[in-house]
Amino acid sequence: MKNATVKKAALLILLIMMVMGIAYPTLAPFQPDDFSSPALLPPGGKHLLGTNKMGQDIFSALLAGFRVTISIALIVSFCSTLIGTVLAISCAFYRRWMDRFIMSVTEIFIIVPEIIVIMLFAAFAGPRVADVVMVMIFFSWSRITRILRGKAMVIINQDTLQYTLLLKGNLFDVGRKMWPYLYPAVATLFIQQCGRAAVYEATLSFLGIGDPALKSWGRTIKAALDYEGIFWGHTYLWWLLPPILCLILFVLALALLTFDFDESGERSD
Amino acid sequence: MFFRSRPSLIWLCTVLGRNCMLLSILVILGFLLPRLIPGSPLSFSADQIDVLNAMLPEETFNRFTDYYAPEQPLIKQFAGYLRHLARGDWGYSFHYGLAVREIVMSRVSLTLFLSLTSIVISTLIAVSLGTYLALKGSEYLEKGLLTLLLVLQTIPVFLLAILCRMLFAHHLGWFPAFGAYPLGMTPADAGFALHFLRHAILPIAVLILNTVPPVAVLTRNVVQKIKREPYVEAAYYFGIREKIIWLYYILLNSFPEILGRLNITFLYAIAGALFVEIIFSYPGMGTLMKVAVEARDYPLIQGIFLVTSIYSIAINMLFELLSIKLYPRLTKMT
Amino acid sequence: MRKRRLLLLFSFFLLFMLVLGGCAEPKTTAPGPAEGSSGDDTRGERVLRLDEQNLGFPSVYTVSSRGRGYLLTSFLFDTLTWKDEKGLVPLLAERWELADDAKTWTFYLVKDAFFSDGIPVTAEDVKFSFEYMQEHPHPWVSLNMVKNVEVVDDHTVKVELLDTYAPFLSEIAGNVPVMPRHIWQDVADPSQFNTPESVIGSGPFTLEHFDPTAGTYIFAANANYFLGAPVIDKLIFSEVNDPAQALADGDLDAAQHLGYGEAMRLKSEGRFNVMEGPGFWVYRMYFNFDLPEFKEESVRKAFYYAINRDEIVEKAVGSGADPGNAGHIHPDSEWYYPQVKEYDFDPDLAGTLLDEAGIVDKNGDGIREFNGKAMQYELLVVSDRVNEAEMVKSYLGDLGVALEIKALDQKSVDSLIKEGKFTLALNGHGSFGGDPVLLARFVSDERSLGSTPSVTAQGGGQWVNEEFNDLFARQMKEMDYEKRYKQVARLQEIIAEELPTLTLYYRKITFAYNPEALNGWFFTKDGVARAVPTVQNKLVYIRGTWGR
User: Is residue B52 predicted with pLDDT exceeding 80?
Assistant: First the structure.
């Protein structure tokens, strides 16, 4: 019951964030790249969170971040979960060499930390969002495959699945039949994956990898830190802290959604 | 001897073989992926070669084409790649104009120092904290600490490092803010060791903060599970001293599972170390990686990938062997 | 219950974060490490620590081709002449004279200069150095105007030029490093020459240690330097991420790579001395003249009218620059000509210009077409100056020209521009003050004498103006300042009229130092060597004073 309360709160936070992301064009008082206002205004008046050194409205940039960061997180998470699930079902369906092959590739990605691989290969890719997103997707399905494969191996022994196999069902049939059993685990993994993707994006942005004009939270954090005077006055309060808090809140809400206080917690990086 | 029994020996061979295979897959991956990624200069469209030709001093460019031989078919390139690796030739850095292996090797020890020190300390802290939470902690304390650990765990390590640097290095001035030792100091100078330690404290502390939460939560869960096992309950029933139960019945039996997870923690610690180094300008592999990424120094990036892979495989193997040694009965499972 | 507790914890966390930042006010009393940086009564070891980029091995041909690289070698190698805050001063040549033909220079060398291996510097070494640099082209100095170098006696050398070359003393004699012949005569490939012998010169310092990956240079004073021993014993350069903070923490004695705002803050705090000077560093927009639309004068003019330079300076550079002027030359230069055509920000006029040229948006998608092709371009920019690019993108967007920003690292941008592999680019460079020879970068005529450092060159199609070419060649031979000024003024008029490049701003430079360490810093007239905008003039280390 206590768990449920926490989860409801987390869900509520996430919903609000997503609504803000969707409604951002109507909510944002300015275009995030409109630099016509005076630079470095403190919060107040037209600018809820003041302006940055370019005279851009920080609140609008933050709102844009809701859309950009969350959609990147969702896209990466969706695609990698999809790949991971398909591969896991393939393991259970084909077994033998296919299973072994997929598993050893999976093991590779578990042994070498994902973020390092993503970072190094994102540096190879062009400086466009799409390229970076592709790299993130490509390197983050392994954990999902590993966990789902175990479950799929058990599920495939269920009567309905055995029946499908008997009828010479193909991979797709098996997948469809397996889905109801697999679904809860996939949902959990999808949510965890969202959090990771958001952190990966922020890390890459912080290192200056990817599209420099992207309006994600990570980029806002980097821009704030690049501003040499960020810690002199109180500028950091309305420029640096909001995107950091949004990012942490987003990741935390996702983690709370899947974290079980009474049982085991999953690692989130 | 270390491995006396035959099954263990077989297992040893399996572990070695499997890790060798993993390493070779990584080597192949390191070769293939840069060539497959769109927009990468190693995909060797004529256009990209021209850009490189324009971007690099002739000397470096020639070494680059010598090393990667872009005009040859892929399979020959691969043979060349293996030949170079076997000779210990990892290519030639664009940015530094030096051999990649030389550069990477000069940096690797500091990164290992940071990550290994922090791992040892954080393991000690995390295991005792987790055990304490599971055995002694009141419900109130437990939930509170768990939440704190969870929050700590969600902060990306680079942000944690930035915040710690602001507070402890700049504001309080307790620790130096950057570097591994004062500028221009060499190990021969007096007081070097002291300065070196002072510079290492803050990065290591951040790494510990980052590593403790997952291990502590894990330990707590494992210990809690074992606490409920019938043989532990029975021990309580027989009135065996609590300390003995904790040590021999619970903790020792928790180790195999914790060990399995520590493996992952060790592997991820190097990633953490790289980011923390960047924030503290600690002259290890992390700062090198930042330079390589910023300057798009592809041979250096590949070299760093290779070293990271070797580190990871080594740690992985070490843990597998360790668990065989400590818990031979595990070898019979799976 | 639980929820409230969670909330409580979370708010604690928030508070923690606020406190973290809130107490991050600048701290003024952080004690530095104890290395003897402060001046004692007894002369302890005097070490000066500065921030600098990693510029490669500091021998003549191995160091970075950017100006700061050359300055590192200047600590090791001397030239015939040099500059200080007032202008030209003698160095290895104690005096010189120009023959009546205005082509032959005779230099009389000092007699007490030695290379750091103990062998004296002679006229033979000077002759050798000139000839070696002709044989092995160097990115920093081009010797295409030198006809012949002749040794008169041990300490007299005669340099004969193909033609009169006005900036010879400062640009050539002040930049050819005198290399010891006995070492370099056997060196076939100088770009590979990085042994300890390769850094033996007659300069005020010797190289004690170089760490190629950390980018740390340790120079030791040359006690036998012919102008007297340097006032410091050791000069350390190292890469530092946050120089202002390192200076405050006592890890540095002086900081050169400061943001303008940071420098102003240090100045207001008063603990360090802060200098501010004209930056001979220009940020400008490059056109690729292979594209027909950029050959249209009206397009370039419309762009310049549409870009608000004052706002770029204020917002993208934090006021740490002066807005560019159409004539390209820095307003603080003695060659600056103020009466050129001006292009004050006027988006309406910009639009009208394009409309009149028939470049309009026919299909109504908000983008103008040129010869039926939409005006969409890639804007190449260095990744740490994306702000400027974003602003330019927005200005030209208002004009009906769509830009896509492509951000790369400095080295790639330099070389893409050099190769002409770009359409539009924003980039900045030094080597911009001093002698008008810098205008050579707009000369399309290959035969002209003199050149600019190759790092500032632009490839692809060239802007061609015959009057400019002729006039440039003529003024390079003009030895009379007044007459030359008039010619240079006309060159600026042509540039302002035709805009081969859009000069956006001139960055100011700043330098902060701890007065407890070395004092006596100055800005060199027209920049050190070939207008490198910095205080890193080796004479500071000879003439300066230590401590308060």
Answer: no
Check: CB of residue C141 under 8 Å from CB of residue C175: yes
Write the burial class of residue A201 (CB in 10 Å: 0-12 exposed, 13-18 middle, 19+ buried).
Answer: buried
Residue of chain B with shortest Cα separation from A258: B150
Residue type, C487: Q
Question: Which residues in C lie closer than 8 A to residue A212 (C-beta atoms)?
Answer: 383, 386, 405, 407
- Report whether B108 contacts B285 (CB < 8 A): yes
| Helix, coil or strand: residue A257 | helix
- What are the structural domains, with CATH classification, of chain B? 109-298 (1.10.3720.10)
Chains with 3 or more CB pairs under 8 A to chain B: A, C
Average pLDDT, chain C: 87
Which of A183-197, B20-34, B153-167 shows the lowest mean pLDDT across its residues? B20-34
DSSP label of B98 = S
Look up the pTM and report it: 0.83
Q: What is the largest CA-CA distance in chain B?
A: 80
pLDDT in tens, C296-315: 999 999 999 999 999 999 99
Distance from CA of C165 to the nearest CA of B (A): 30
- Prediction ipTM score: 0.82
Beta bridge partners of C211: C216
Domain residues of chain A, as ranges? 2-33+47-258
Contact yes or no for C512/C247 (Cβ under 8 A): yes
For A2-33+47-258, CATH number out of 2.60.40, 1.10.3720, 1.10.3860, 3.30.379 equals: 1.10.3720
Report domain extents, chain C. 47-250+514-546, 279-508
Amino acid identity for residue B25 in this structure: I
Q: Would you call B177 and C242 a contact, using CB atoms and an 8 Å cutoff?
A: yes
**The predicted structure's pLDDT at residue C455:** 64
Residue A124 with chain B: CB contacts under 8 Å: 33-34, 37, 39-42, 298, 301
For position C415, what pLDDT does the model report? 78
Which pLDDT score, from 0 to 100, does residue B49 have?
Answer: 67
| Domain C47-250+514-546 CATH class label | alpha beta
For residues B118, B120, B125, B127, the Cα torsion angle rounded to the nearest 10 degrees is 130
Q: Are B178 and C240 in contact (CB under 8 A)?
A: yes
User: What pLDDT does residue A264 have?
Assistant: 44
CB neighbour list of residue C277: distance below 8 Å, 6 or more residues apart: C508, C509, C510, C511, C523, C533, C535
- A23 to A18, A194, B39, C524: CA distances (angstroms): 9, 20, 34, 56
Domain C279-508, CATH number (from 2.30.42.10, 3.10.105.10, 2.40.30.110, 1.20.1250.20) = 3.10.105.10
